[in-house]
Amino acid sequence: MTVRMKIAVDAMGGDNAPQTVVEGVERARDEYSDLEFILFGKKSEIKSYLKSEVHIKIVHTDEVISMNDEPVKAIRTKKNSSMVLAAKAVKDKEADAFFSCGNTGALLAAGLLIVGRIKGISRPGLLSTLPVLSGDGSGAFNLLDSGANAENKPEHLHQYAILGKYYAQRVRGIKNPRIGLLNNGTEPHKGSKVTQEAYQLLNTDDTLNFVGNVEANAILKGAADVVVADGFTGNAVLKAIEGAASAMIHLLKNMIMDSGLTGKLGAMLLKSSLSGLKDKMDQSRYGGAVLLGVKAPVVKAHGASDDAAVYYTLRQIHKMLVEKMTPDLVSYFSHKG
Amino acid sequence: MTVRMKIAVDAMGGDNAPQTVVEGVERARDEYSDLEFILFGKKSEIKSYLKSEVHIKIVHTDEVISMNDEPVKAIRTKKNSSMVLAAKAVKDKEADAFFSCGNTGALLAAGLLIVGRIKGISRPGLLSTLPVLSGDGSGAFNLLDSGANAENKPEHLHQYAILGKYYAQRVRGIKNPRIGLLNNGTEPHKGSKVTQEAYQLLNTDDTLNFVGNVEANAILKGAADVVVADGFTGNAVLKAIEGAASAMIHLLKNMIMDSGLTGKLGAMLLKSSLSGLKDKMDQSRYGGAVLLGVKAPVVKAHGASDDAAVYYTLRQIHKMLVEKMTPDLVSYFSHKG
C-alpha cells in the first residue's frame, strides 16, 4: 500500500474559489500519484466543480475568512473557517502541508498560531520567488522575509539565510545557493545596525555561501540566489518590484493603444515578445509564498490565482514534502539549540 | 544692477565631466539671465568646452573626488577638490547653491559637514523625484529620505514630511501636497515601531495634508505627492523601482532582438511607443536628488548625466532659489525650535 502525502487545502480562499482551487487540485492529483488532498469548504460548491473524488476528501464547513477580516482576530474567532480547519488538520497530523489562496495575514497567523514554529526558530519568515530580469530569462531568486514581520533582529536574518538555503537546495535544486544580504550599499560596513550585525553573523557562518551585501537593483540581475532582508524592507522591495513591473506593462499597453494604426500593427507583430515579457513577470509559475520556520509547509498563492497557479503551488508543496525539507529543518535547528 | 543668484558647480563630478557639465551650465546660463555660475575644476579642460564665459567664473583646482573615494574621508582630506571647494563657496556665501554629478556619498557629506544643517533639523534627507506610472504619464511623486540615512526616528520622518511639502509646493507648484507614509499596509496600526509612531506625528499635524500609509506598489500609481520613508527603506524602494524599470526595458529589447524579422518590423513600427516608455522612466527631466534640511540647495545629478540632465537640474535649482524655499524652511524651523 502506498503511503500518500496529504495536503490540507483551504478551498474557499481566493477571488475565484472554490472553482480554480478545485481545478488546480485535480490537475495536481492527476499528475502526482503520491498525493492526497483534504478540501475544506462548502461541500456542494466544491462538488459542483469536482470531476472525481479519487484521493480527494471534502470536509464541509460554511465559515469562511474573508480578505477584509482582521487576521489574528479571524483565526481566533472563526474556529470553523475553512482556513482554520485546514491549519488544524496539519497540527493534528491529519495532513502534511497547508495551502490557501486566501487572506495573507490570516494564513500567516494560522501558520504561526496553529501549525506552530519549529523549535529554535524565533520569527518565521515569508519566502517569495521573483524572476531575474537579465540573461536568458530563466533565472529566479528567493527573497525572505518578504512580509511576515514588521521588524527583525540580526539573528532572525541569520535564520532566514539558513531557511532560504534549504529551500533553494531542496525545491530549486541549487547545490550551494549564493546568499546575499539586502543592504543600501555593497561595502561590508554599510547599512543599519541590524544589517551591520547580520553581515557579521552571515559572514562568520561557514555553512553559508555568503556573497555579501546586495542592493535592491542588483537582486533583479541575479546577484544572489537567496536574498535575506528584514520583513519591512523585504515587503517594500517586493511590492516596489511587482508594482513597477505591472505598471510598466500597463503603460506600454496604453502607449500602444494611443499610437494609432502603425503602432497597433507593430504591437501585433510583436505580440509574442510582449506576452513573453508578461509571462516572465508572472511569478505564479514559481509557486506561492512559503512561510518558512513553521512545522509544515504553509503556502499562500495569490488571491487572483487561476487553476494553473494553484497547480504550480501544489507542485511546489509536493517538492518540499518529497525532499523532506521541513523535517530536515527541524533536525537542523534542534541540533543548534 | 541685477543681483544674480550664484550656483557653485563641481565641474569634475560625473562620468562625462567636465564636458556635459559645461554644456548644461551654458544652456542654463543662456536661458536664465538671473543666474551666475562658479565652476570648480581643471581650468584648461573646462575652457576647452566653454563657448562663452559670460556669467561664468572658473576656479581652478587639480584635485578631484572619485566615485571610489570613501565619502567622509574624501571630504576631510581632499580639501582642494572641486567638490569641497564648491561646497565651501556656499558656506562662505560666495554662492547660493551647490551642484555636482559626482560621488553621492561625498556630496551628502559635503552638504552635512560643510554647508551644514538648518537649525532645528535633526537629519537632513535626500529627496528623489519619480514618475507616476499610470494615468496620462505626466505625474510624479517625491520620495524622501531616499538614502541619506541608514536609520531614522519617527521625528525625522515628520520633518521629511514638512521638507517634502515645501519642495512640492515651491518647485512643483502643488498647492496642498498629499503626504503619504511608506508602510507595509494601509491600516493606521500597520508597520514597525518607527512607522507607527511616525503615523501619529503626521496624523496630528494639522499643517499637513496627510493621506495615511501608502504601500510601495501604490506610490507608483500616484497614491501621494510626497512619500515619507526612513532612508534605508526609501533607498531600497528607489533602487527596486529603478532596477525593475530598467531591467524590463532591457528585457523587452532582448526579446525583440530575438524575435526574428516579424518582431523587428513590429518594433520599428512601435518605436515611438517604446522610446516613450523609456522617456517616461527617465528621471533626469525632474532634475537631481536634493539634500533637504541643509542651509542651501545641495543637488546631485546622476553620474551618467548628459548635458540635458545637467540643464534640468540647474533649472530645478533656479526654481528653488527663486521661490526662496531654503530661507523659508530656515524660518519655519527656527520658529518651531
Automatic annotation (TrEMBL), chains A, B:
It is an enzyme of class 2 (transferase). Belongs to the PlsX family. The keyword Metal-binding does not apply. This is Phosphate acyltransferase. Its EC number is 2.3.1.274. One of its GO terms (molecular function) is phosphate:acyl-[acyl carrier protein] acyltransferase activity. It catalyses: a fatty acyl-[ACP] + phosphate = an acyl phosphate + holo-[ACP]. Pathway: Lipid metabolism; phospholipid metabolism. Keywords: Cytoplasm, Lipid biosynthesis, Lipid metabolism, Phospholipid biosynthesis, Phospholipid metabolism, Transferase. Transmembrane segments: none annotated. Homodimer. Probably interacts with PlsY. It comes from Liquorilactobacillus oeni DSM 19972.
